[in-house]
Design a protein that fits this description.
The protein is α/β, with parallel strands linked by helices. The chain has two domains: 2-166, no CATH class; 191-294, Diaminopimelate Epimerase, Chain A, domain 1, CATH 3.10.310. It is 40% helix and 17% strand. The strands form two sheets. It has a six-stranded mixed β-sheet with strand order 6-7-8-9-11-10. A five-stranded parallel β-sheet has the order 2-1-3-4-5, covered by helices on one side. It binds manganese (II) ion.
Protein backbone atom coordinates (compact mmCIF):
# COMPACT_ATOMS: atom_id res chain seq x y z
CA UNK A 1 0.00 0.00 0.00
CA UNK A 2 0.94 3.64 -0.32
CA UNK A 3 1.14 6.13 2.54
CA UNK A 4 0.12 9.69 1.62
CA UNK A 5 1.08 12.34 4.16
CA UNK A 6 2.65 15.77 4.65
CA UNK A 7 6.35 16.55 4.63
CA UNK A 8 6.74 17.60 8.25
CA UNK A 9 7.74 16.01 11.58
CA UNK A 10 4.18 14.85 12.20
CA UNK A 11 4.33 13.16 8.78
CA UNK A 12 7.67 11.52 9.65
CA UNK A 13 6.39 10.15 12.97
CA UNK A 14 3.14 9.01 11.32
CA UNK A 15 5.20 7.18 8.71
CA UNK A 16 7.30 5.50 11.43
CA UNK A 17 4.11 4.24 13.12
CA UNK A 18 2.10 3.28 10.04
CA UNK A 19 4.98 1.49 8.28
CA UNK A 20 5.42 -0.53 11.50
CA UNK A 21 1.76 -1.57 11.54
CA UNK A 22 0.82 -1.79 7.84
CA UNK A 23 2.36 -3.14 4.67
CA UNK A 24 3.56 0.12 3.07
CA UNK A 25 5.81 -0.01 -0.01
CA UNK A 26 6.14 3.72 -0.61
CA UNK A 27 5.26 7.15 0.72
CA UNK A 28 4.00 10.20 -1.14
CA UNK A 29 4.32 13.70 0.33
CA UNK A 30 1.69 16.22 -0.63
CA UNK A 31 0.17 19.52 0.51
CA UNK A 32 -3.32 19.50 2.08
CA UNK A 33 -4.44 22.02 -0.57
CA UNK A 34 -3.78 19.29 -3.21
CA UNK A 35 -6.66 17.31 -1.66
CA UNK A 36 -8.95 20.34 -1.29
CA UNK A 37 -8.28 21.33 -4.93
CA UNK A 38 -8.56 17.68 -6.11
CA UNK A 39 -5.12 17.93 -7.73
CA UNK A 40 -3.85 14.62 -6.39
CA UNK A 41 -5.41 11.23 -7.10
CA UNK A 42 -6.22 9.05 -4.09
CA UNK A 43 -6.95 5.35 -4.67
CA UNK A 44 -8.16 2.43 -2.46
CA UNK A 45 -4.47 1.49 -2.15
CA UNK A 46 -3.81 4.60 -0.05
CA UNK A 47 -3.57 5.27 3.68
CA UNK A 48 -3.79 9.00 4.38
CA UNK A 49 -2.40 10.81 7.41
CA UNK A 50 -2.49 14.51 8.33
CA UNK A 51 -4.53 15.45 5.26
CA UNK A 52 -8.19 16.28 4.56
CA UNK A 53 -10.52 13.28 4.15
CA UNK A 54 -10.81 11.59 0.75
CA UNK A 55 -13.54 8.97 0.19
CA UNK A 56 -11.35 6.71 -1.99
CA UNK A 57 -8.67 6.10 0.68
CA UNK A 58 -8.47 2.71 2.43
CA UNK A 59 -7.69 4.40 5.77
CA UNK A 60 -7.61 8.00 6.97
CA UNK A 61 -6.07 9.64 10.03
CA UNK A 62 -6.27 13.34 10.86
CA UNK A 63 -6.22 15.74 13.80
CA UNK A 64 -7.37 18.96 12.16
CA UNK A 65 -10.81 20.48 12.51
CA UNK A 66 -13.14 19.48 9.69
CA UNK A 67 -13.58 22.44 7.35
CA UNK A 68 -16.43 23.42 5.05
CA UNK A 69 -14.16 23.30 1.98
CA UNK A 70 -13.42 19.58 2.41
CA UNK A 71 -15.42 16.34 2.06
CA UNK A 72 -16.84 15.05 5.37
CA UNK A 73 -16.08 11.44 6.37
CA UNK A 74 -18.99 9.01 6.85
CA UNK A 75 -19.49 7.48 10.33
CA UNK A 76 -17.90 4.15 9.42
CA UNK A 77 -14.64 5.19 7.70
CA UNK A 78 -11.54 3.13 8.51
CA UNK A 79 -8.98 4.98 10.60
CA UNK A 80 -9.52 7.78 13.08
CA UNK A 81 -10.16 11.50 13.32
CA UNK A 82 -9.63 13.24 16.64
CA UNK A 83 -8.66 16.73 17.78
CA UNK A 84 -5.22 15.93 19.20
CA UNK A 85 -1.86 17.76 19.34
CA UNK A 86 -0.53 15.63 16.45
CA UNK A 87 -1.85 13.05 14.02
CA UNK A 88 0.97 10.80 15.23
CA UNK A 89 -0.83 10.73 18.61
CA UNK A 90 -4.12 9.78 16.91
CA UNK A 91 -2.39 6.90 15.09
CA UNK A 92 -0.49 5.76 18.21
CA UNK A 93 -3.75 5.59 20.18
CA UNK A 94 -5.67 3.96 17.32
CA UNK A 95 -3.33 0.95 17.13
CA UNK A 96 -2.44 1.03 20.83
CA UNK A 97 0.05 -1.71 20.07
CA UNK A 98 2.98 -3.10 22.02
CA UNK A 99 5.01 -2.75 18.79
CA UNK A 100 4.70 1.03 18.97
CA UNK A 101 5.53 1.42 22.66
CA UNK A 102 9.17 2.27 21.91
CA UNK A 103 8.01 5.36 19.99
CA UNK A 104 6.23 6.90 22.99
CA UNK A 105 8.89 9.62 23.41
CA UNK A 106 8.99 10.39 19.68
CA UNK A 107 5.19 10.76 19.68
CA UNK A 108 5.12 13.02 22.75
CA UNK A 109 7.83 15.27 21.29
CA UNK A 110 5.92 15.33 17.99
CA UNK A 111 2.87 16.49 19.99
CA UNK A 112 4.90 19.38 21.39
CA UNK A 113 6.34 20.28 18.02
CA UNK A 114 3.10 20.09 16.02
CA UNK A 115 1.06 21.99 18.61
CA UNK A 116 3.95 24.49 19.08
CA UNK A 117 3.86 24.06 22.86
CA UNK A 118 7.56 24.91 22.89
CA UNK A 119 9.86 26.65 25.34
CA UNK A 120 12.01 29.63 24.35
CA UNK A 121 15.05 27.31 24.35
CA UNK A 122 13.31 24.99 21.84
CA UNK A 123 13.34 27.97 19.47
CA UNK A 124 16.69 29.61 20.25
CA UNK A 125 18.65 26.37 20.78
CA UNK A 126 16.60 23.33 19.73
CA UNK A 127 17.76 19.81 20.62
CA UNK A 128 16.66 16.23 20.01
CA UNK A 129 13.35 15.53 18.26
CA UNK A 130 12.52 19.26 18.13
CA UNK A 131 15.80 19.97 16.32
CA UNK A 132 15.13 17.08 13.94
CA UNK A 133 11.64 18.50 13.39
CA UNK A 134 13.03 21.85 12.25
CA UNK A 135 15.19 20.09 9.64
CA UNK A 136 12.14 18.45 8.08
CA UNK A 137 11.15 21.38 5.93
CA UNK A 138 10.73 21.11 2.15
CA UNK A 139 11.63 24.80 1.75
CA UNK A 140 15.20 24.35 3.01
CA UNK A 141 16.67 22.66 -0.01
CA UNK A 142 19.73 20.45 0.22
CA UNK A 143 19.37 17.46 -2.08
CA UNK A 144 16.04 15.69 -2.44
CA UNK A 145 13.60 16.42 0.36
CA UNK A 146 11.68 13.21 -0.32
CA UNK A 147 14.85 11.12 0.09
CA UNK A 148 15.65 12.96 3.31
CA UNK A 149 12.14 12.36 4.66
CA UNK A 150 12.31 8.63 3.87
CA UNK A 151 15.81 8.34 5.34
CA UNK A 152 14.77 9.99 8.62
CA UNK A 153 11.84 7.55 8.86
CA UNK A 154 14.07 4.51 8.43
CA UNK A 155 16.78 5.91 10.75
CA UNK A 156 14.20 6.51 13.50
CA UNK A 157 13.08 2.89 13.14
CA UNK A 158 16.57 1.43 13.31
CA UNK A 159 18.74 3.77 15.41
CA UNK A 160 18.63 5.59 18.74
CA UNK A 161 17.86 9.31 18.47
CA UNK A 162 21.43 10.55 19.06
CA UNK A 163 22.64 8.38 16.20
CA UNK A 164 19.92 9.77 13.92
CA UNK A 165 21.08 13.29 14.81
CA UNK A 166 24.68 12.42 13.97
CA UNK A 167 23.90 11.28 10.42
CA UNK A 168 25.81 13.56 7.96
CA UNK A 169 22.59 14.50 6.09
CA UNK A 170 20.99 15.59 9.37
CA UNK A 171 24.08 17.50 10.52
CA UNK A 172 24.30 19.29 7.18
CA UNK A 173 20.70 20.47 7.51
CA UNK A 174 21.21 21.45 11.16
CA UNK A 175 24.22 23.59 10.16
CA UNK A 176 22.25 25.31 7.40
CA UNK A 177 19.33 25.82 9.78
CA UNK A 178 21.54 27.52 12.37
CA UNK A 179 23.20 29.69 9.70
CA UNK A 180 19.83 30.75 8.22
CA UNK A 181 18.36 31.45 11.64
CA UNK A 182 21.27 33.72 12.55
CA UNK A 183 20.75 35.78 9.35
CA UNK A 184 16.98 35.69 9.80
CA UNK A 185 17.24 36.94 13.39
CA UNK A 186 19.34 39.90 12.27
CA UNK A 187 16.80 40.76 9.54
CA UNK A 188 13.92 40.37 12.00
CA UNK A 189 15.51 42.92 14.34
CA UNK A 190 15.94 45.38 11.48
CA UNK A 191 12.46 45.01 9.98
CA UNK A 192 10.10 44.49 12.94
CA UNK A 193 8.33 46.92 15.20
CA UNK A 194 5.73 46.52 17.92
CA UNK A 195 2.35 48.21 17.35
CA UNK A 196 0.60 47.78 20.68
CA UNK A 197 0.10 44.04 21.20
CA UNK A 198 1.02 43.30 17.56
CA UNK A 199 4.53 42.84 16.18
CA UNK A 200 4.70 43.85 12.53
CA UNK A 201 7.54 42.65 10.29
CA UNK A 202 7.90 44.07 6.80
CA UNK A 203 10.32 42.02 4.69
CA UNK A 204 9.31 43.61 1.35
CA UNK A 205 12.63 45.45 1.07
CA UNK A 206 14.70 42.32 1.70
CA UNK A 207 16.07 40.83 -1.52
CA UNK A 208 17.09 37.38 -0.34
CA UNK A 209 15.21 36.22 2.70
CA UNK A 210 16.43 32.97 4.25
CA UNK A 211 13.93 30.41 5.57
CA UNK A 212 14.04 31.13 9.29
CA UNK A 213 12.27 29.84 12.37
CA UNK A 214 8.82 31.46 12.38
CA UNK A 215 8.77 31.53 16.20
CA UNK A 216 11.98 33.58 16.55
CA UNK A 217 10.06 36.86 16.33
CA UNK A 218 8.34 36.05 19.65
CA UNK A 219 11.67 35.72 21.43
CA UNK A 220 12.42 39.32 20.36
CA UNK A 221 9.00 40.75 21.22
CA UNK A 222 7.76 38.74 24.22
CA UNK A 223 5.31 41.49 25.24
CA UNK A 224 3.30 41.18 22.02
CA UNK A 225 0.73 38.41 21.60
CA UNK A 226 0.32 38.23 17.83
CA UNK A 227 2.47 38.79 14.74
CA UNK A 228 1.91 40.08 11.22
CA UNK A 229 4.58 39.51 8.62
CA UNK A 230 4.66 40.57 4.99
CA UNK A 231 7.06 39.54 2.24
CA UNK A 232 6.85 39.36 -1.53
CA UNK A 233 5.28 36.34 -3.20
CA UNK A 234 6.93 34.91 -6.38
CA UNK A 235 7.69 37.64 -8.98
CA UNK A 236 6.18 40.19 -6.58
CA UNK A 237 2.74 39.30 -7.93
CA UNK A 238 1.27 39.54 -4.45
CA UNK A 239 2.27 40.51 -0.93
CA UNK A 240 2.30 37.33 1.18
CA UNK A 241 0.96 38.10 4.65
CA UNK A 242 1.14 35.67 7.57
CA UNK A 243 -0.48 36.06 10.98
CA UNK A 244 0.36 34.06 14.08
CA UNK A 245 -0.27 33.98 17.80
CA UNK A 246 2.76 34.38 20.04
CA UNK A 247 3.37 30.79 21.24
CA UNK A 248 4.96 32.09 24.46
CA UNK A 249 2.16 34.54 25.25
CA UNK A 250 -1.13 32.91 24.28
CA UNK A 251 -3.46 35.75 25.23
CA UNK A 252 -4.69 36.87 21.80
CA UNK A 253 -8.34 36.03 21.14
CA UNK A 254 -8.05 36.90 17.45
CA UNK A 255 -8.90 34.16 14.97
CA UNK A 256 -6.05 34.47 12.45
CA UNK A 257 -7.66 32.04 9.98
CA UNK A 258 -10.97 33.95 9.95
CA UNK A 259 -9.25 37.30 9.46
CA UNK A 260 -7.15 35.87 6.62
CA UNK A 261 -10.19 34.32 4.94
CA UNK A 262 -11.68 37.84 4.68
CA UNK A 263 -8.67 38.65 2.50
CA UNK A 264 -8.71 35.57 0.26
CA UNK A 265 -6.57 33.35 2.47
CA UNK A 266 -7.22 31.02 5.38
CA UNK A 267 -5.73 29.09 8.26
CA UNK A 268 -6.48 28.18 11.85
CA UNK A 269 -7.18 30.25 14.95
CA UNK A 270 -3.48 30.41 15.82
CA UNK A 271 -2.05 31.05 12.36
CA UNK A 272 -3.20 32.22 8.96
CA UNK A 273 -1.96 33.47 5.60
CA UNK A 274 -3.34 35.59 2.79
CA UNK A 275 -2.05 36.91 -0.54
CA UNK A 276 -2.72 40.66 -0.91
CA UNK A 277 -2.76 42.74 -4.12
CA UNK A 278 0.51 44.77 -4.04
CA UNK A 279 -1.16 48.17 -4.50
CA UNK A 280 -3.71 47.57 -1.71
CA UNK A 281 -1.43 45.70 0.69
CA UNK A 282 -0.53 48.64 2.94
CA UNK A 283 -4.14 49.66 3.54
CA UNK A 284 -5.21 46.06 4.11
CA UNK A 285 -2.36 45.39 6.54
CA UNK A 286 -3.42 48.48 8.48
CA UNK A 287 -6.97 47.05 8.71
CA UNK A 288 -5.65 43.66 9.78
CA UNK A 289 -3.48 45.18 12.52
CA UNK A 290 -6.46 47.17 13.75
CA UNK A 291 -8.50 43.96 14.03
CA UNK A 292 -5.70 42.19 15.89
CA UNK A 293 -5.42 45.08 18.34
CA UNK A 294 -9.10 45.08 19.24
CA UNK A 295 -9.58 41.29 19.29
MN1 LIG B 1 -0.13 17.60 12.17
Amino acid sequence: MRLVTRGDLDGVTSAVLITTMEDIDHTELIHPQDITDKKFEITPDDIMANLPYHPAAAMWFDHHELTASNVRPPENFRGRHALAPSVARVIYDYYSSEKLRKYEYLVSETDRFDAATLDIKDVTDPQGVVLLGFTIDSRSGIGSFKDYFNNVVSWLKTMPLDKVLSQPEVKERVDLLRENNATFLKLLKEHSKPVGNVVFTDFRTVERLPVGNRFLVYTLFPETNVSVRVQWGPEKKFAAVTLGHNIFNRTSKANCGHICSDYGGGGHKGAGACPLPPDKADAMIEEIIKRLKTA
